[in-house]
Predict the 3D structure of the following.
Amino acid sequence: MAVISLNISNYGKCLCPVCPVQLRSKCIAAKNEGWRQARLKVGEMLKQYHEHPEAYEMEMSELEKSEVGQRHAFTEPKPADMQELYCSEAVGKSNCSDLDEGKMCQCPDCVVWQQNKLGSTYFCLSGAA
């Protein structure tokens, strides 16, 4: 089974933020401001990753201490606050209990899922790959 890294590359490809399973979750919505701020910082770094290609694959804990991470005041998101990359062992299942498991999971459409040949889905409900 693949181990999914918690890095900018995977973070930027993740479809969890627009997945129907969590779109109507009040718990997810309550956490959105911190998530939105982290995404904005990641977006800024992604624009500049060609200047620092090593940052793109760097684990987030390492990135926080790196030159490019410090330039963007990047702080590693706490796994409990992350609303994405549930397939990563660093994040695992969501701590929100109001996800809609009746909705269609997008995991098979996700580049991270495809590149790592993950066989299961609904990581937000059942845990990491």
Residues 8-126 form one domain.
